[in-house]
């Protein structure tokens, strides 16, 4: 362990560069996945609009209605970020009534756990959600610990060989690590947060 620590101390600039490249790569992959999903949705809308306009003379009214429903569903998904018509209706009401944007965002995030089997919609998480939440907190803690260790290593090394650019690299990398730490810790709403979201949802009826 001591040898590993000494290696990090004496080669931390290279370690920072490699780590920065890794996290940048992760960010690029996430962005590409998001763009791919968006592009697929846009193509589906364009394709169905083409079918509706090009073959309107041979498509029956019922089939036209089906294609229109598909287009509407895709457009509303892009706006509300959810596929459920019932949840889209609730989100629309929340938005019109001026409910806090962060509440609406978290309800969208938890759309898989929103149940409509009762008079009011309710968020009910399961065991797997709780396990995932614990994992996210652990990862956030690991990144936070790494941030502290990097700062301590950099301080130790710079006291012996002070270099302005090294301090700048450390600050940049610590911002990256801090961002990932906060992102993991806030990725999924907490139990208390879900309780607050359910209080908001309790003001709305499923069948309204």
User: What strand order characterises the main sheet?
Assistant: 1-2
Gross geometry: flat
Counted up, domains total 2
Distance between the termini: 63 Å
The level of helicity is over 70%
**H/E element sequence:** HHHHHEEHHH
Quote the beta fraction: under 5%
Topology, number of strands? 2
- Mean pLDDT, as a whole number? 76
Extract low-pLDDT stretches.
none
Helical segment count: 8
Query: Which structural class do the helices and strands define?
Result: mainly alpha
Biggest β-sheet strands, sense, barrel: 2 strands, antiparallel
What gyration radius follows from the Cα positions, in whole Å?
A: 24 Å
Transmembrane segments: 12-34, 134-157, 163-187
Keywords: Membrane, Transmembrane, Transmembrane helix
Topology:
Elements: H1 2-10, H2 12-54, H3 61-80, H4 85-96, H5 101-109, E1 114-115, E2 122-123, H6 127-160, H7 164-185, H8 191-201
Antiparallel strand pairs: 1-2
Structural overview:
The chain has 208 residues and is mostly helical. It has two domains: 1-80; 83-208, no CATH class. It has eight helices and two strands, in the order H-H-H-H-H-E-E-H-H-H. The chain has helices at residues 2-10, 12-54, 61-80, 85-96, 101-109, 127-160, 164-185, 191-201, and strands at residues 114-115, 122-123. A two-stranded antiparallel ribbon has the order 1-2. Helix 2 (12-54) packs antiparallel against helix 3 (61-80). The longest helix has 43 residues, at 12-54. The radius of gyration is 24 Å and the shape is flat. The N and C termini lie far apart (63 Å). 10% of the residues are buried. The mean pLDDT is 76.
């Amino acid at each position: 362990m001591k040898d590993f620590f000494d290696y990090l101390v004496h080669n931390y600039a290279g370690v920072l560069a490699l780590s920065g490249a890794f996290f940048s790569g992760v960010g690029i992959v996430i962005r590409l996945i998001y763009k791919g999903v968006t592009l697929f949705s846009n193509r589906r809308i364009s394709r169905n609009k083409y079918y509706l306009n090009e073959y309107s003379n041979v498509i029956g009214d019922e089939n036209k209605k089906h294609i229109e429903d598909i287009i509407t569903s895709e457009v509303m998904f892009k706006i509300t970020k959810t596929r459920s018509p019932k949840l889209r209706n609730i989100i629309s009401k929340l938005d019109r009534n001026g409910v806090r944007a962060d509440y609406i965002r978290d309800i969208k995030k938890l759309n898989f756990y929103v149940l409509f089997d009762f008079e009011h919609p309710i968020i009910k998480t399961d065991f797997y959600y709780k396990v995932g939440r614990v994992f996210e907190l652990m990862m956030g803690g690991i990144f936070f610990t790494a941030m502290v260790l990097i700062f301590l290593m950099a301080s130790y090394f710079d006291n012996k060989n002070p270099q302005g650019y090294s301090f700048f690299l450390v600050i940049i990398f610590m911002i990256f690590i801090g961002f990932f730490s906060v992102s993991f810790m806030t990725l999924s709403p907490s139990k208390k947060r879900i309780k607050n979201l359910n209080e908001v949802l309790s003001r709305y009826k499923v069948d309204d």
